[in-house]
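Appendix B. Raw example, untouched.
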Amino acid sequence: MRLSYIVNALSLIMMYIGLVLLAPVVVAIISHDYNSVFPFISAAIISAGIGYLMRKIVPASARLENLNDIKKSEGLFIVALSWVIFALVSAIPYPFYDLSIIDSIFEATSGITTTGATILTHYDYPKAFFFWRSLTQWIGGMGIIVMFIAVLPQFAVAGRQMFFAEAPGPTEDKFTPRVRNTASILWKLYLGLTVILFISLMLVGMAPFDAICNALSTISAGGFSPNEHSIMGYNIPAATVLIGCFMLLAGTSFNLQFKALQQKNPFALFKDEEFRLYFSIIFIFTIIVAFLVLPQQGYSIVDSVRHAFFQVVSVMTSSGFASVDYTHWAYSAQVFLLIAMILSSCSSSAGGGIKLTRLLLVFKILKNEIEKILHPNAVIPVKHNDKTVAPDVLRQVVIFLFQYILIICTTAVVITLIEHNHTLGLSSAITSLGNIGPGFGQIGPMSSFEPLHSSTKFILIFNMLVGRLELIPFIAMLNPEFWNIKSE
């Protein structure tokens, strides 16, 4: 790998992150909270300053006009390091609000990875603080690299290597010949959905500031809310339905949504195998969970369906919002929520987790192997949406699934040993790697991760980053050859 290319890309990213950090300053000034100006101005100066110094320390990086011939290994490295840097820079303002260093990094990482797990034990913070939490989720939901590809000409061609390293899914799914155009279209769709939800939430009675924060966190499948009781705290049934529907969209492939818009036909979504499975699971699980909680909680039929739909969509899309404290529901209902967590959302969406495409492909691989036992000489290709899937993609899917389960098992055991709580260990491992956020028991939807041991928080930070990057850069970094860095 060439140091000049890596420094060039990272320095640009850091300088532009510095600009993004000025957004909460505007919120602080509008809300007359002048004490919040300094934390975000400081973070902006630090980020932009480090980016500028990186170019001075490595002069060859400043001479590069573009990154068109960037290598795949360099792209993976830049993507992985960008997320780590973004987490650290995003954490800079939090110690000004009396959060510890480890808690600040945890909250920032949870934000940018759209995990939604929080260490907050109270919500007596200014508006700029909450706006920054939601904004980090919104940026992380679509991807910081995708954002920079859309706006920076230096990434116009080189962005391809980084786009697919960051894009959540097993296949390279783009709908324009140029990656930059694809990134631009995705961000326009993402912004459009955010604006529509923001306006809709205000129309049903939510305050403008809460509406914008919740809209940012919903479209990103993030889950951070300025209300300490999440969406339950607003007691607005229409808002619950709205956010539930937009969480469903957040967990749907944005590529697929764009194609449906192009065709002006929402039913075009159902032509996709993955979406049909995704929608079917949500529909079936909503009915089952509503049936299970109705007699126990004393809800009306409408409220039972509404809460069941909201929570199933929330955990399946890894959003982490809550319309009720589902840890008080029947154990059987919680089991279905856990299954929904594991099944996860669609590829190329803001949702986290394994992705349904991978589970579909694994099922088809197993089906083919069974058929080959009966017909040893048969050649049976694995198809997805009537297209044959390349063997290397299938191999990557199996490796991914193995690594995913291995990380969950390993971190669950270690956390259990640290916290002496097996429910906490397994739940936190699944929710952190899947970027889901709240889990069960001690880390339920109305609880905080703050009481956990610092070692546990470091493990969860690792899981959140690896889960958002979908293991690929992480797996690549395990190869010693990956670290062969040259000056130019």
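End of appendix B.
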